[in-house]
Automatic annotation (TrEMBL):
GO MF term (any one): nucleic acid binding
Cross-referenced Gene3D superfamilies: Ribonuclease H-like superfamily/Ribonuclease H
Protein's name in the database: Holliday junction nuclease RuvC
Length: 189
């Protein structure tokens, strides 16, 4: 008995499979793309901090604009790769920063719905910090410094290093020679 395979399934199998690690933010989202077959690691970001809100635009419309930019980036990835899993930092609320926490919750909701058909995995920031430094309450700068020393990179921003810390929490056997960073943003040690 022969199995019928749709054209869409055949097309998906031709794309390289990746795992996607995101440090979600509406100012700068850190991205790690892990190509499963080649074991190549691409460090990137979705830098929205350069987008300035027009004076007449409502804050909620500006938020939608930024979500649209993130969606465009993700659409490009989906066209280029078959995403086997999405990994994100768990959602947390800062009572003193309620407005930004609400925005982050919305962004996570958007990402969860965008990847509704893709397995999703979440780790809390304290678990990620503990995995990297041994201390779940370590400062972001300490995590970034340890990762930089271990893998030979000065990360261009904390969002990329946060996404890489998430990646390193799931992958212990990282070959630092397989790491590719946007050259204009990176310094090699």
């Amino acid at each position: 008995m022969t199995k019928n395979v749709s054209r869409e399934t055949k097309f998906l199998k031709k794309k390289p499979s990746i795992q996607l690690f995101l440090d979600a933010s509406t100012s700068n989202t850190g991205v790690v793309i892990y190509e499963e077959k080649s074991k190549r690691i691409l460090l990137d970001d979705i830098n929205l901090s350069k987008i300035k809100k027009p004076l007449q635009m409502k804050p909620e419309d500006f938020e939608k604009l930024k979500f649209g930019c993130i969606k465009n980036y993700l659409d490009t990835l989906k066209n280029q790769y078959f995403i086997t899993g999405v990994y994100m930092e768990g959602i947390f609320i800062y009572p003193k920063r309620l407005k930004s926490s609400q925005t982050l919750l919305k962004l996570h909701g958007f990402l969860m719905s965008y990847f509704i058909d893709t397995p999703q995995y979440f780790l809390s920031p304290s678990v990620i910090k503990k995995n990297i430094t041994g201390d779940g309450h370590a400062k972001k700068e300490t995590v970034r410094e340890i990762l930089g020393l271990k893998y030979g990179y000065i990360f261009p921003n904390e969002d990329i290093s946060d996404a890489f810390a998430l990646f390193a929490s799931y992958h212990e056997d990282i070959d630092k020679n397989k790491i590719t960073v946007k050259e204009e943003d990176n310094e090699r040690l």
